[in-house]
Design brief:
The complex is a heterodimer of chains A (356) and B (357). Chain A is built from 14 helices and 13 strands. Chain A starts with 18 loop residues before the first helix and ends in a 29-residue tail after the last helix. With 356 residues, chain A is an alpha/beta fold. The chains are: A alpha/beta (356), B mainly alpha (357). At the A-B interface, α1, β2, β4, α4 and α8 of A face α5, α10 and α15 of B. Chain B: It is a multi-pass membrane protein. Chain B: Its main location: membrane.
Chain lengths: 356, 357
Amino acid sequence: MRTSSQAPSRPSSRSGLSPRVLIAGALSLAIGLALTGAAKAGPTLDAIKARGSIKVGVGTQPGFFSPDSNGRWQGFFVDFGRALSIAVFNDPDKVQFVASSPQQRLPSLQSGEFDILLSGVTQTFTRATKLGFHFGPVVFYDGQGLLVPKKLGVTKGKDLNGATVCVQTGTTGELNITDFFRQNKIAFKPVVIEETAENQKAFASGRCDVLTQDSSDLAITRTQLPKPDDYVLLPERISKEPLAPAIRYGDDQWLEIVNWAVYATIQAEELGITQANIDSFLTSTDPTIRRFLGVDPSLGEAAKLDPKFAYTIVKTVGNYGEIFDRNVGPGTKVGLDRGFNKLWTQGGLLYAPPFR
Amino acid sequence: MTDGILQSAPPLSPPQPRWQRLWIGLFGTPLNAAVTLGCLALLGWAVPPLLRWTLLDAVWVGPADRCADAAGACWAFIGEKLRYILFGFYDQDRQWRPAAAGAILLALAGLSGMPLFWRRATLWLWLFGLAAALVLLTGGPAGPAVPTERWSGLPVSLLLAVVGLVGAFPLAVLLALARRSSMGGVRTLAVLFIEVTRGVPLIAVLYVATLLLPLMLPAGAAIDKLLRAQIAIILFVSAYLAEIVRAGLQSIPAGQYEAAQALGLGYWQSMRLVILPQALRTVIPSIVTLAIGLFQDTTLIIVIGLFDLLNTARTAAKDPAWLGFYDEAFCFAALIYLTVCVIASRYSLWLERRLRR
């Protein structure tokens, strides 16, 4: 899910000048050029309004972003893209989703290929400072897990001395797993594969003892294995993976729109407002709700947004909980628990600043 | 003397019946017999499970739940996803447009294969056909515009391959002529371009076109991503095509060049009227081989986030409602690629026989 800030230039087990090395070189160059060129680009929001649509970079991961049978993007992050489109254009469909692989998505964001990256990028220090990305609010708190076959008889990560580990290239997962084994002073052999599906195949066929990905990915991987009950997800989470929208430096107004479009979904859940019952709140006398839904239009006017943007977002895509449950919740094939992604009032980490 | 030589030739053995030759080929020696038995055992091991998976235990229609219980392939998945795999994100009610564009491209390629169409008028046919295909895909007179971000599936694969080859053609001819030119500067440039391009993998060229090019352009000057990939493919193919054309030029005897000169034809005239028509004709089989490779190479655009046939097939299996039917998706895509490539290679064989006559 997460893209590494570095091009994958660590020594490859293969010899010779492989395409990967060439690509790594091209990417490093791209990032370097981007750092000098980013400042010149005009404000993102102006470009969006001139174009009449938002370009959103996405990945392909069941439940988070995938095309349905009609060729329409669906998923958890896709819904946030639609929410942004509502905030800017008051229309959920003025958004183009552009698929991007983990290795190319950060350089593509730098080069202006998208206005925002909603592909589950982990917010990190390096990306925010060295690469020049602003991050919006975290929309999904994830952590890297370890999936192993039960027959290994392993109960915790430290038992994995000498294990072969399947890991996706160009992700923070690759760096985390290296750190994890180094910290515990045990040896491992990485099998590095770019494609998620390939990674799963390699693991299912026994090419590696351990599959490591975000635990959200591992949950769905496990259901896709021939015999899901033969595998177990180890209890450790070896990393913090706050997945957040990423945008380029240089457009504060755009950042605020991203922030408050996401906060609107969280605030709605906190207020108990859902897609179904939202209209009954329009007559509420509570000033918080009146401000939030734009019945009292002062907030929207100050922000130069449609005063009812929060109302339209919740009415169209739902509140945070509804977005979560519809795409990746326990009722779906992905079947994730809310975990950290509960409201702060329910023991989770989601917290929206006040709408006032 | 001549008699002696003729007599020393071994007498031809009488022709054996077909089945006897077959028997000797399969079981004539112990080694042959072992190889044959080994192959039969391999087939016996591989074919029955494969048949069970593809046909006997397969689910042909129905919802995803029925597939989950079945041991065989889920062809219902292909049925459900057929439109998405073929046309991807293109607006559903306008998918006749990419379908027609794809048909035009295939027809153009097919017609140009027939010797009847190896004439100048075919150039106009191509110009007209390509323009029609592009208008159909883009919109314009054919209806509302559809941005290239939504172009996907089989028409994109065909477009990239066909336009890649046709667009590279004029460039390749110029490069080949330049490489054989007596003007040192022109020759050096041509050699440099051809050798550098052939020394770099296509995937790197695509990365440069998608990631580096936008950074080098002045702010605001954006070139469409599909167009960038198309240009990269054209440039890449032109280097290979130039070498094929050069081989054709070299196969023309010097007498032809001299005869053209003797007729008072200038350089361009002699090339256009005498040399190139003969040279290009001899290299058609090599060009077909290149075209087959190119059609398969277009799948590399997956790495820059464009959706060709292989990518739509792959992502079809990521829909949570129909999760994980990768085998069926890839089988279907493979079948399409196989069909196109087998037709092309059979054509190439037929053409070789015909040209030898």
